[in-house]
Amino acid sequence: MSASSAFNDEKGGSSSVGEPEYGHDPASGGIFSSDYKRHDDLKEMLDSNKDSLKLEAMKRIVAMVARGKNASDLFPAVVKNVACKNIEVKKLVYVYLVRYAEEQQDLALLSISTFQRGLKDPNQLIRASALRVLSSIRVTIIVPIMMLAIKEAASDMSPYVRKTAAHAIPKLYSLDPEQKDQLIEVIEKLLADKTTLVAGSVVMAFEEVCPERIDLIHKNYRKLCNLLIDVEEWGQVVIINMLTRYARTQFLNPNINESLLEEGGEKTFYGSEEDEDEDDEDKDKKAEVATMAKRKPYVMDPDHRLLLRNTKPLLQSRNAAVVMAVAQLYFHLAPKAEVGVIAKALVRLLRSHSEVQYVVLQNVATMTIKRRGMFEPYLKSFYIRSTDPTQIKVLKLEVLTNLANETNISTILREFQTYIKSMDKDFVAATIQAIGRCATNIGEVRDTCLNGLVQLLSNRDELVVAESVVVIKKLLQMQPEKHSDIIKHMAKLIDNIQVPMARASILWLIGEYCEHVPKISPDVLRKMAKSFTNEEDIVKLQIINLAAKLYLTNSKQTKLLTQYVLNLAKYDQNYDIRDRARFIRQLIVPTEKSGALSKYAKKLFLALKPAPVLESPFKDRDHFQLGSLSHLLNAKAGGYQELPDWPEAAPDPSVRNVEVFTLLERVTTLTSVPEWTKCSSREKRKEKKVEKPFYSDSEGESGPTESADSESDSANGSESVSGSEVSGSGSESEESEEGSESEEEEEEEDEEKDKKKKKKELKKKPVQESESEQSSEEEEEERKHERKSKPRKSDSETESGDEEESESESSQSESDESESEAEVKKKKKAAQSKPPAKPVKTDGKKEKKEMSLLDLDDFEPAPSPQVTPVNSFLSSSLVTDLEGLSLSDSVLSPATIAPSSALKSYELLHRITGEGLSVEYCFSRQPFSPDANMVAVQIQFTNNATSDTKNLHMEDVKLQSGMRVKEFPEIELLPAGETTTAVMGIDFCDSTQAANFQLCTHTRKFFVSIQPPVGELMRPIFLTENEFKKEQGQLMGMNEITERLTLDVKCRNEHTIVQRVTTAANLSRVPCGSDKECRFAGRTVTSSSLVLVTVATKEEGAAQLTVNCEKMVIGTMLVKDILQALTQ
Amino acid sequence: MIHSLFLVNASGDIFLEKHWKSVVSRSVCDYFFEAQERATEPENVPPVIPTPHHYLISVLRHRIFFVAVIQSEVPPLFVIEFLHRVVDTFQDYFGVCTEAAIKDNVVVVYELLEEMLDNGFPLATESNILKELIKPPTILRTMVNTITGSTNVGEQLPTGQLSVVPWRRTGVKYTNNEAYFDVVEEIDAIIDKSGSTITAEIQGVIDACVKLTGMPDLTLSFMNPRLLDDVSFHPCVRFKRWEAERILSFIPPDGNFRLLSYHVSSQNLVAIPVYVKHNITFREGSSQGRFDLTLGPKQTMGKAVEAVLVSSQLPRGVLNANLNASQGTYTFDPVTKMLSWDVGKINPQKLPSLKGTMSLQAGASKPDENPTINIQLKIQQMAISGLKVNRLDMYGEKYKPFKGIKYMTKAGKFQVRT
Q1: Polar residues bias located where (chain A) (predicted)?
Q2: What's the pTM?
Q3: Which residue among A185, A422, A753, B120 is least packed, with the fewest CB closer than 10 Å?
Q4: How far apart are CA B128 and CA B247, in angstroms?
Q5: Nearest-CA distance from A1071 to chain B in Å?
Q6: How far is Cα A220 from Cα B62, in angstroms, rounded to an integer?
Q7: Which residues of B touch A91 (CB under 8 A)?
Q8: Backbone angles phi, psi at A355, to 5 degrees
Q9: Which residue in A916, A1010, A1013 sits closest to A959, CA to CA?
Q10: Which residues of A touch B249 (CB under 8 A)?
Q11: Is the ipTM of this complex over 0.90?
């Protein structure tokens, strides 16, 4: 831009351009003197006191400006009126001023003080308009004034003024690029602005001034995504384009394991598990995070998902530019499976103005090459109407050609046939080319196409014939041997076809492939020799060529004919032909004079000519960002920002974290209802009501995406009643069994607790019920609570309900304190004395539990199962116990053979990567009391370092949509050498997607992820044999998976089978009459779908495994897991 | 973004220019004129033309080229869409968007352009906001202005841009509160030679004219919203409400606006209202051709098919057409070879037909292409897709508005191949 202004300066403004125009204006009379006179009266009018005269004068001046005439000599007279009271006069003066200030810098300075006064005006609109005009005056001297004004306006109260400030930034930058650093500061400040009014403009300024400073976006990324829908349409386009580039630098390619996915969904899941096993094995691995990222199956960054989700509704925009922007974002960023949604919207744009169609079709053409399937359903929308402009027709043809495949080619070809009859010959030629491309791409129709094209050779229009011949030639060149009959057919056509170009082309073909038609070609030559003298020049040349080629291959038959033709050509009128004949004679007929070349005559004439490649001009266009000017022109336009390649490893996602409350905000947006987020922001800016996005409330109430989510949430909620019952029974049964085994000491303790809990039960019960019944509402409230409690204790994120619970609990347990304290000491000693892993773990757990009793401030949410069945003391969890008690009738599961010692623990953080902190987790198979839909994950922290670790907590949870996490309470202190455990809950949504989060200590943060084996996504239920059979009967067909296997040698008795199956999956055994069959039942944790497993044993280790499950993915994965467990 | 704008009329004169940044010489348009010369038809001028220092992006509306000068990368659709918005605004202001109208109102045009773009980036494009800033010229106002010397520019500064409803101006007052909605559907179809439908889809719009006092909040519900396959909304429509309940809920802009446009693509749903029997033949060796066309109603659900206009581009070889219309009048332009027949209303008892001969150039071979027939028609009081508005409710204001809904079906790009 600076360049352009300089360019104009050189030309001395537009005066040189404008002046000659005088003569063209009939009103100006065409004589210079009269023109001056008129200007004189304009000056008089401007100097008068009457506003109406001034206005009249200004109108005439503006009309002159509009027509491109020079009105610069009026500048002094006009500029005086800058302070005029009349608004219209003022506005017109502004228009004039902005246009001519550059040429008359000194005089323009006179007006500056007026604007400076305007900048201080109490009315926001006057402030804004003053800034707008001031910044539009391209006079270098006032750069410092502008800078000051922009800086001030950037912190103005009014968002409208701030928006104007954002607009002023690129203006100043183009005037003086040296201000860049200062401007970036302003941009940074404005980017943090929370109003939709400013967002679009500031991103625009960012794109013009410092598009490379992608780091400025990090902190504002989530805000921009969330505000997007409320931003005005032009701003949306700019923001979406910028975010596309941003996402390309920050996230991983969602299609990275496309190949794996193609092999089958299960394989990827499997692969992930293997990966994890490996991780377990090679323990000394460094830089675990990085490798994990690479090896792990792709998990979409929640921020990436956020962007995709928030842009999707904009496909419904009335503005074609917005739709296109979203479309290109999806094309460049979305996983392959999701890109399809944009097709419908793009097809809709084809109804719009022809210019819009033109641009959209160009982009669609590029897309169809990469993702043909996307547009296939809309094939007919690309059919061509005779009223379309030619450029649109050609583009539609391109799209149709790209979409052609085996299934639709017949319809497309039929359509092409009508196009060939069109009156628009350019279009017909393009159609023939398109047919040629279809024929090359799709083998099946090559012959049909060829035949069709051959028929076209008899068309009267030369253009059509020429085009067909060219295409036929190309097609035949690809597989000449197969098409000797077409060549024969064409040889026959030569009698009828009169168009010289076509005759020439046929002769060339026969000559080139004379070996494929050995019998016909000499005959053709004979005919042609006969009519040689009457042929057109190009045909004659090809006859000579044909003769030469035949002479070389079949000299016996054609020697005389060739001689004859050459002789005829020797005396032709055309010197080209005479030359050619002479040249060829020397080359092919060996004489003493002919040099070494004649030896190579055959090679020269019958060299293999490469088949021309027919490919789309839109191939590889997608390296330009779609929808951009550069893509349209297929050349880099000035200022084009290259679309970066995906990074190998994702850059640190935590850079986008803003504050604690925003973190929370995000978690909720991911899981369900973001209304409170909006509420919070509203609260925050209560005083500035203007700024809040208009629809924020109503969106909250019934958002499309959100509402969908909340629906599913409420569904979960309703299920959770039954869910908790079942889980209650399961855990209870386990406890009852295990309880008997446990030490006396503990039993006593637990009994005491039970009493307390029963007391509380009375208090809590009603609350509990209502909770589970209307969980969706409840959740929302909970969040509100949460938010309120947040500032108080920003780190430990505990839910309010739990908070109360644990508070009251802790007050009651005060009396026990001394006792338990003593116990803790004992345990600690024990822990230190026993080095092996397992015992340490158990002790640690106990210790942890008691710690929580000690620690009054730690709002331990009484996480249910601090316990593995191994060490099996009763759960301290209040809620679980309550549930257990209330449901005591459904107990005594005869079958829960708890997989003793079977809990496999996985490494979360190796001690080397964790700098002394090692973390392991296992699925404790206990119901997670705060939320029955969550899988309880027990995490064991061991501090191997020499110094204490403090403030262990988790942060920045990244989940797939629908998944939720209940974080474990912060561990304040983990002394050196100590071990402790905590329990967290994860709702995996019945998928094996990993939950990623950061584990934070007071010094460091570690990226970790927990991925469940499929067997842990269920909880055992108790069924009778009859119930089992009934349920099994309902889950047949697709829901049943049967696999034959040979049992491992060690695994041929019932007990081991049961043990192995229950180890692999969290199921309970179903009693069964036959000893040849073992049955297991469970329900998935989130959706409570039944999972039924049957292992029927036969002779010699042969067995049959049957899994019945509504969720087929879970079923198949489970089959593989159990299979592996039984055969190893 | 947008550097400058040039308005070029059909004869290739620049009659208005506006620069938002430093001045770009109008000689840049020479590249555009070159492209214009190369193109056989005005609509074949490429919308994007690269020049050594600039890019020209143009749209053609009402035989005026709006040529925007761009200096650096910008999404072309962004510019195209903006230019169309400019034209729509002019049309809204002056009733028509012709060269004469623009020249007559050059000051208003200039003021509008000044408000719509700031430094080449769109600023105020909502018609309600613009109308608050700059009052549209009316005969009365022009007269008053000349007498009293008052202005077009609004005395009050606009509040809309700052309000929570950026598309609606504040302080709207009407004595008669009324809201009218026009459901207009257009059938796009290609019918092949034998009369079977190759492709057919319905493009519908709901245009609204809302004149309601204050800040009304309207909801509009349909009897059969599932029909709507693909929808695009005016920004005022609460998208999330639509997603969840299929109800249109919105605070309308004041005056005329397009509430939504939709698409019904499923082919079975598309009823074709008319059929065409045609027999257009040219005989080899003869300089005569037969032309025989009969129209009849097909699926109209008992409604009359009105304002039927048939047009066809005859082959270049046709010199003249000597036809006889049973109803309405026909014209044949020997230069453009365009035949058009204004049929009017189709009477099912007496089907309109156009019969006769075409004379061909003597000695010329028979044209190998057959003309396509384009049909325009109108059916009142019916939306061909069967879409029906269930009810319209207003919240937020006390008065009872007068509500009206009108349905209409038209032929869009309705083509019959012969």
Answers
A1: 1-17
A2: 0.65
A3: A185
A4: 24
A5: 46
A6: 44
A7: 111, 114, 153
A8: -65, -40
A9: A1010
A10: 698
A11: yes
